[in-house]
Design brief:
- The structure holds two protein chains of two kinds.
- Chain A contains twelve helices and 15 strands.
- By secondary structure, chain A is α/β, with parallel strands linked by helices.
- Helix content of chain B is 37%, strand content 17%.
- In chain B, strands 2-1-3-4-6-5-7 form a seven-stranded mixed β-sheet, with helices on both faces.
- The chains are: A alpha/beta, B alpha/beta.
- Strand 9 of chain A pairs parallel with strand 2 of chain B.
- The complex binds thiamine diphosphate and iron/sulfur cluster (SF4).
Chain lengths: 354, 248
């Protein structure tokens, strides 16, 4: 199989092309710029279009129009730009259009900095914009996984007619790793009879809309959305377990932090401490099952590690539901957790358990 | 007696919700007739605004998208770039187009998007209760300029057509009014031309239409028509601000 060295941000772009995405609208922001750079070159090669919008507000609304017209479409940005897109994402969620939004998270709040961060977890998994809506959120932890999850993101978007977010951090975006591309996946987006393409002989006209002035009607729309999210929760939870079976201390981490956590698991096991890792691959729907199972099984304590002040922590606590203590270690502002720091935290927890 | 006018195929069989004497309805009809007459109804996608025309997706008899406030030109860009053969128009009020959506308007023009924008200038925010719009006249009383718009506080009326005409990507920019039969005929011609400019792929086209809001102006429908003539047109002169080069 073809093995190529690829930068994370470029892998997002190539993954999208392999998924059949031919339209990208975006606005420059560090640390995701290599993604639009890549697609500006790559999309014309496959007959696609890269268009630089005047703002993230415009970019997400171009995505709205392109998705309404039936295209597989993507945008990407980093934290402050994703904040600007929230209005549009809320509209797209209510109008039930498929699209993919990539957030290469950076240090916040405010203008923050361009260093790696995971501080947009709440924004990504709890809605982000106004109204009761959810986005499936995927969190790759390697360049290979970026390629695979972008394809999945487009499939989920089409399957559920919903925006899907893929989050990474600056390290994942910037680092290079070898990836196996393999043959391009077979892309068969479902038919989109609802798309506003012009009626073109169709008997009834299509309307893409998120306005329902009668509360009874809007409640029906909300109930339909909630039923959809229920199905997403039943069918789409994904996670990775690493040496978690007999672990007495379970680290929970996503994205790049999970890579650091894996190193900690190995070093702690060498030192005789039974540590394991549960890595959510979908942040929404949150994979609560393996956590609940560990909490009723071998695990004596959990340690959530994030590059934020404790956001996924809340979902882990909900899953563990008071059965075992849940500890937290996080760095903020773009500071990256080191292996030694997490090891220290694990040792403290282990001492406490004895 | 023979029927001299009949309902255009461009409009769905729905009653307008507009106030008595509001000219939004006339403008809808002109746009719908133009689309029908050009024979492009089946490949047209309209994008409606947030404002009094928010329900326009119920009225135009073609595929329609309801955009967020001010974002119609960006949404239209997305549609047109995916479906270059389609005919795409936006229908926007002055708050939608010239306040919250100024950037989207200017940049759609700058990119020369092959879309047509119908810009309804009624010098006020109709839907939200008659607040000042960017196009409100100096001295005009609105619910947020109760003593009349003063330039020292609220600045000056924004002349959108004059501004957009300076942009290279804009191919056709014109201002019309619908306050008299003669002006309505001119408005119709302008709208037809704007769609033709799009069909020829010449660039962005914008038709600014001076429109009434008797409800929020506090005038009767006939008074409102007179107000367009006596107050608005002197500030917003009618005519072409940019025409395609092959027609100069
Ligand atoms: C983001 C956002 N801000 C504010 C509003 C409230 N709003 C609805 S319509 C409108 C103004 C509409 O005025 P205009 O565009 O002039 O259209 P008209 O009603 O006069 O036809 C405003 C401010 C909104 N819907 N969304
Ligand atoms: S409020 Fe004004 S613009 Fe809106 S429908 Fe009534 S008259 Fe027309």
């Amino acid at each position: 199989m073809e093995r190529v060295l690829m930068k994370g941000n470029e892998a997002f772009g190539e993954g999208a092309v392999r998924a059949g995405c031919r339209h990208f609208f975006g606005y420059p922001i560090t640390p995701q710029s290599e993604l639009p750079h890549y697609l500006a070159r790559r999309l014309p090669e496959v007959g696609g279009l890269y268009l630089q919008a005047e703002s993230e507000v415009a970019a997400i609304n171009m995505v709205y129009g392109a998705a309404a017209a039936g295209a597989r479409v993507m945008t990407s940005s980093s934290s402050p730009g994703i904040s600007l897109m929230q209005e549009g994402i809320s509209y797209i969620a209510c109008a039930e259009l498929p699209c993919v939004v990539v957030n290469i998270m950076r240090g916040g709040p405010g203008l923050g900095n361009i260093a790696p961060s995971q501080a947009d977890y709440f924004q990504a998994v709890k809605g982000g914009g106004h109204g009761d809506y959810r986005l499936p959120v995927l969190a790759p932890a390697s360049i290979q996984e970026i390629i695979d999850l972008i394809v999945l993101a487009f499939d989920l978007a089409d399957k559920y007619r919903n925006p899907v977010m893929v989050v990474g951090d600056g390290i994942l975006g910037q680092m290079m790793e070898p990836v196996e591309l393999g043959p391009a996946p077979e892309v068969t987006p479902p038919p989109k009879p609802w798309a506003t393409t012009g009626t073109l002989g169709r008997k009834s006209r299509n309307v893409v809309n998120s306005l329902y002035i009668e509360p009874e009607e809007l409640e029906k729309v909300n109930l339909r959305l909630q039923a959809k999210y229920k199905q997403v929760e039943q069918e789409e939870k994904r996670w990775e377990e690493y040496r978690a079976d007999d672990a007495q201390v379970i680290i929970v981490a996503f994205g790049m932090v999970a890579r650091i956590a894996k190193a900690v698991v190995d070093s702690m096991r060498m030192a005789g401490i039974p540590v394991g890792l549960i890595r959510p691959v979908t942040l929404y729907p949150f994979p609560d099952k393996p956590l609940a199972a560990s909490a009723s099984g071998a695990a004596k304590a959990f340690l959530v590690v994030e590059m934020n002040a404790g956001q996924m922590l809340e979902d882990v606590k909900l899953a563990v539901c008071g059965r075992k203590p849940v500890h937290f270690y996080g760095r903020t502002g773009g500071m990256v957790t080191s292996v030694a720091e997490v090891e220290g935290k694990v040792r403290d927890i282990w001492e406490g358990l004895k | 007696m023979a029927v001299s006018t009949k309902r255009t195929q461009g409009l769905a069989d729905k009653h307008f919700h507009y106030c008595p004497g509001c000219t939004h309805g006339i403008i809808h009809r002109l746009v719908a007739e133009a689309i029908e007459e050009l024979g492009v109804l089946e490949k047209t996608v309209g994008v409606c605004p947030v404002g009094c025309a928010v329900f326009a997706y119920d009225y135009f008899n073609c595929d329609m998208i309801e955009a967020a406030h001010g974002r119609a030109p960006a949404v239209a860009t997305g549609v047109k770039r995916v479906l270059p053969e389609s005919v795409v128009f936006t229908y926007q009020g002055d708050g939608d187009l010239a306040a919250i959506g100024t950037a989207e308007t200017v940049h759609a023009a700058a990119r020369g998007e092959r879309i047509t924008t119908i810009f309804v200038n009624n010098a006020v925010y109709g839907m939200t209760g008659g607040q000042m719009a960017p196009t409100t006249l100096l001295g005009q009383k609105t619910t947020t300029t109760p003593f009349g718009r003063q330039s020292s506080v609220a600045g000056y009326p924004l002349k959108v057509s004059e501004m957009v005409a300076t942009i290279d990507g804009a191919a056709y920019v014109t201002r019309v009014a619908v306050n008299s039969p003669k002006n309505i005929l001119r408005a119709k011609k302008a709208i037809l031309k704007a769609f033709n400019v799009q069909l020829k792929g010449l660039g962005f086209s914008l038709v600014e239409v001076l429109s009434t809001c008797p409800t929020n102006w506090g005038l009767s429908p006939p008074e409102a028509l007179r107000w367009v003539k006596e107050k608005m047109i002197p500030v917003y002169p009618l005519g072409d601000f940019k025409v395609p080069e092959d027609e100069v």
